[in-house]
Amino acid sequence: MKLINSSTIIQYFSISLMFLPSFISSQTCQKTCGTQPVKYPFGTGLGCGDPHFQTYVNCNNDQLTFITKTGCYPITSIDYSNQVIYISDPSMSTCSCTQQSKGFSLDWNAPFSFHDDTVFALLDCSISSSPIYKSINGENNSSLPLCDYQGTSVCDHLSSCQAISRLDIPISTCCVYTPVDLGPSFDMNLEKLRCNSYSGLYGFSGQENNPENWKYGVALKYKFNFDNKYPTLCDQCEKSSGVCGYNGPSNLFSCNCPSGFNTTIDCFDGQSWSSAFRLLPLEIITFLACCIGSMWL
Questions:
Q1: pLDDT (mean) for 206-230
Q2: Over the Cα atoms of the chain, what is R_g?
Q3: Predicted local distance difference test score (pLDDT) of residue 53
Q4: Distances, alpha carbon 129 to alpha carbons 20, 173, 192, in Å
Q5: Which of 218, 210, 219 is closest to 95 using CA atoms?
Q6: Distance between terminal CA atoms of the chain?
Q7: Average pLDDT for 220-242
């Protein structure tokens, strides 16, 4: 057996360490998307967050986006304490801008539901052909809207907006829908409803009579799981500076750590060499073993 001196061993070991950066990557799952914080159950990419939400919330070009069958919508903010996300629809009408729209829908199997504060005002609907109107005694010119009568004031105030008033649309063609009226599919197809536009809002900012300051957009609720309990493993992962995620064909839980490695529990504390080697993948351990072993040949 050929022995080598300690300086040669150190040299070999130093060269081996030079290869470590090629194996160690930065944290794959980020904690922000642009300037917006991203927390569980959402994620910034594949394998991040909860797999049930990954299809619907994505981070693209530093913009957090909500995706449904009707399009992609910017997420303006997320209230993690109350589990509500707020999105905007560039195609909806507001007090400052009126335009045609195809509507807004939630996928039937999406883990979201409309927040109770969300209100939809359907605009410029055809009284004669829209299914939201029904005739009285078979007379088409005498109809009652299948709308929420409590929201009549919303139509009144919207009609006072300059952008909407220019269209010279009768108030009778405005119909306020609450989420429950959309049915189990949560589908607001304006083409089928024979309406040209809609306005969505989730708050009045304490100024019910001033539509210019209303909160336009859509508010959606979400739950973590059936019991709506924050997962214990995720809580432990986040306390160790990790980001909750998943991997494998069964979408098993994983904790994505700042070192770039995934664990099944949480990230290791500290930056000592002992903890660092515990994070080394099998490829690196095998590589080092071969290098050290070759020194004794």
A1: 92
A2: 28
A3: 94
A4: 69, 11, 10
A5: 210
A6: 6
A7: 92
- Find where tokens 């008033």 sit: 165
Two structure tokens written together for 183: 């049915």
Number of residues that this document lists for the chain: 297
Determine the Cα–Cα distance for residues 291 and 264; give it in Å rounded to an integer: 29
**How far apart are alpha carbons 65 and 85 in whole angstroms?**
11
C-alpha pair distances (Å), 13 with each of 8, 17, 160, 272, 297: 9, 6, 77, 17, 16
SS3 of 118-130: the string is CEEEEEEECCCCC
Tokens of 186: 């949560």
86-112 pLDDT per residue, tens: 999 999 999 888 888 888 888 888 899
In contact, 230 and 224? CB cutoff 8 Å: yes
Contact 196, 124 (CB under 8 A): yes
What is the reported pTM?
Answer: 0.75
pLDDT of 171 strictly over 70: yes
Pair 37, 57: CB distance under 8 Å: no
